[in-house]
Design a protein that fits this description.
With 100 residues, the chain is mainly α. It has three helices and no strands. It has a single domain, classed as Helix Hairpins, CATH 1.10.287. It is elongated and about 50 Å long. 9% of the residues are buried.
Length: 100
Amino acid sequence: MENLNSYLIVSAILFAIGTVGVLTRRNAIVIFMCIEMMLNAVNLTFVAFSRHLGNLDGQVFVFFIMTVAAAEAAVGLALIIAFYNNKESLDVEDINLMKW
């Protein structure tokens, strides 16, 4: 069996890259990609612990997380396209201008 620590280190690095991307980028699509990277880092952790412990609970959680992430991506991209059609910009600073 592989070393659990190596999977956790890779997962922590992916999560850190995603966090830095969310906090520093201003493009909405790049922020979405960073959020997806963070979700995949969590999925990697679940799968690593599931394999290490010898049960399938973590892999079941990953299945549900991926389902929710797909729905979130579809709704989020639809909102981003609607915003781009109105303002012709994907800058997150401009989203605050969409007040009713």
